[in-house]
Specification:
By secondary structure, the protein is of the alpha/beta class. Helices cover about 30% and strands about 15% of the residues. The strands form six sheets. It has an eight-stranded parallel beta barrel with strand order 3-4-7-11-12-13-14-15. Strands 16-17-18-22-20 form a five-stranded antiparallel beta sheet. Helix 12 (about 350-360) runs parallel beside helix 17 (about 465-480) and helix 13 (about 390-405) packs antiparallel against helix 14 (about 410-420). The longest helix has 17 residues, at about 180-195. The two termini are about 25 Å apart. The model has no long low-confidence stretch (mean pLDDT about 95). The chain binds 1-O-alpha-D-glucopyranosyl-D-fructose and calcium ion. Calcium ion (CA) binds near residues 26, 27, 28, 32 and 34.
């Protein structure tokens, strides 16, 4: 069935909630979130009104990168529980009308995976070609590529005098997708999970599975290593492999599929998420969260400007219209908290700016994602000491740039406070009791001290909370087809302060305007015309202006 320019689909109408299991809820007091903790909180998620839960990886893992390094794809991480706990969680979730999307991390495995343990044994081991091995060049690394987590992307292995590729940590060797046996093994494993009744996959760095076979040096921007991106992201066979995955697995089930696609362009996104649906439902692009880039990449403490953000958001809305489907997100487990980054986390403006950012995103066209805690306006944690950080990326980056003298210790701490992934990974704040109700033990990472005021219990008791605002945005999407299927059109495209747009479907128009500043801004978009206000973060409006961080949505 067609609505506007689109074919109707459940995953276009859904709202996804991402859970980072390690930090969500600890049921047994060991300080680590777990599956039973998730099961306990399903009624809370049902109340919020989301449709789908995406779980960051819950498979067996030595946790070098918190589960993104998998040593057994068919077992549950010991700290998170058992397969019985998983089966119960899945069944309970379905009872609460919540679907479960699994994280699929198959660009790389852990070096402790049985395949890699075999692979590194000898050049003629049957698993040798499961990974990417290269001879030394002039006694050194095969090329200048740096890993995302610091250092070279190549690790020397004495047993066979060769290097293996790891785009992330050296405990995350890249799988060799050119080997049909690797593809068979991955597709079998995916089928096994689908047969268990899961509802989809979020595919980790799926744009990186096909490498340029020439393995050329990459451009050096940080003065240390070359970037692999031009030769790894959207590589030569990536679409072939995803089409094969689609034919052999995805097309046989009714799934939600979203590919994490670093380095994806509009042209590439139209292939990954094409209308014919021969690959994936949608991809995560990174341009809006990467809109501030310094000489050492994402490490910066500069607040993004609306003038940098708007053209990116609008471009993705315009260019995919009727051709491919967008995903919409501010936050995930790799990004700092949206209210601290794009909004204002002061006592005065936290709630109102969190609601403004929610309005801005949830009224756009695409499938929205909410990251745990975003729905109560959780903020960055601002750790003062390096010892409080747990994230491999943050700790390695600190040493890489500070030890080499490229950045001062003070500046690097300021970058971490603003952008570190650990800002998203502090425990979920459930109440004002010890450890925010996350655990009765010692949490694996410190709780944000503001849990005494920012927590779900307080949010649920306050009708004006960020929680109920998200609940209402989700209800609007579920009840009004225009929110899902309406065509996007940008407004006030030169404004430095207000982000505004319309959505149109048949004879209806939605008008959305969001003030991104802490001061009043002139705005006459709501002065004329009949219709009704659907939602706003202010109870009273002022003629001709938007108040600080005010957001308005008008249906006419
Ligand atoms: O992230 C992919 C990725 O490109 C990361 O480097 C991300 O951009 C970075 O954290 C922000 O600078 C995925 C996962 O989401 C991440 O948690 C994993 O660490 C990574 O893959 C490796 O599996
Ligand atoms: Ca636990």
């Amino acid at each position: 069935m067609k609505i506007g320019n689109e074919t109707k689909a459940w995953w276009k109408e859904a709202v996804i909630y991402q859970i980072y299991p390690r930090s969500f809820a600890d049921s047994n007091g060991d300080g680590i979130g777990d599956l039973n903790g998730i099961t306990e909180h399903l009624p809370y998620l049902e109340k919020l009104g989301v449709d789908v839960l995406w779980l960051s990886p819950i498979y067996q893992s030595p946790n070098d990168d918190n589960g993104y390094d998998i040593s057994d794809y068919r077992n549950i991480m010991t700290e998170f529980g058992t397969m019985e706990d998983f089966d119960r969680m899945l069944a309970e979730a379905h009872k609460h009308h919540l679907k479960i999307v699994m994280d699929l991390v198959v660009n790389h495995s852990s070096d402790e995976h049985a395949w890699f343990i075999e692979s590194r044994k000898s050049k003629d081991n049957p698993y040798r070609d499961y990974y990417i091995w290269k001879d030394p060049v002039n006694g050194k690394e095969p090329n200048n590529w740096g890993s995302c987590f610091g250092g070279s992307a190549w690790e020397y292995d004495e047993a066979t005098n060769m290097y293996y590729l790891h785009c992330f940590s050296k405990k995350q060797p890249d799988l060799n997708w050119e080997n049909p046996k690797v593809r068979d093994a991955v597709f079998d494993m995916m089928t096994w999970w689908c047969d268990k009744g899961i509802d989809g996959f979020r595919m980790d760095v799926i744009s990186m599975i096909s490498k340029d076979p020439a393995y050329p040096d990459g451009p050096v921007t940080d003065g240390l290593y070359g970037s692999f991106s031009p030769y790894v992201c959207n590589g030569p066979h990536v679409h072939e492999y995803l089409q094969e995955m689609n034919r052999r697995v995805l097309s046989k089930y009714d799934l939600l599929t979203v590919g994490e696609a670093g380095g994806v362009t509009i042209e590439e996104a139209k292939k990954y998420a094409n209308k014919e649906q021969t690959e994936l439902n949608m991809v995560f692009q990174f341009e809006h969260v990467d809109c501030v880039q310094g000489p050492i990449g994402k490490w910066s403490d500069e607040k993004p400007k609306l003038s940098a953000l708007r053209p990116i958001l609008n471009k993705w809305q315009y260019e995919l219209e009727g051709k491919a489907w967008n995903s919409l997100y501010w936050d995930n487990h790799d990004q700092p908290r949206v209210v601290s980054r794009f909004g204002n986390d002061s006592d005065q403006f936290r709630v109102v700016s969190a609601k403004m950012l929610a309005t801005c995103l949830h009224m756009m066209k695409g499938t929205p994602y909410i990251y745990q805690g975003e729905e109560i306006g959780m903020t960055n944690v601002y750790f003062d000491r390096l010892e409080d950080y747990r994230d491999i990326e943050s700790i390695n980056a600190y040493h890489q740039y500070v030890d080499s003298g490229i950045v001062s210790p003070e500046k690097m701490m300021s970058y971490l406070k603003f952008i570190s992934r650990d800002n998203a990974r502090t425990p979920m704040q459930w109440n004002d009791k010890e450890n925010a109700g996350f655990t009765t033990g010692t949490p694996w990472i410190k709780v944000n001290p503001n849990y005494t005021t920012i927590n779900t219990e307080a949010a649920l008791a306050d009708p004006d909370s960020v929680f109920y605002y998200y609940q209402k945005l989700i209800q609007l999407r579920h009840t009004l087809p225009i929110v899902v299927y309406g065509t996007f059109h940008g407004l006030l495209e030169d404004s430095e302060t207000i982000y505004a747009y319309t959505r149109t479907l048949d004879d209806q128009t939605l008008t959305i305007a969001c003030n991104f500043t802490d001061t009043e801004q002139p705005c006459d978009l709501f002065e004329h015309g009949a219709g009704k206000e659907l939602i706003s973060n202010y109870a009273e409006h002022k003629a001709g202006v938007l108040q600080p961080y005010e957001a308005r949505v008008f249906l006419g």
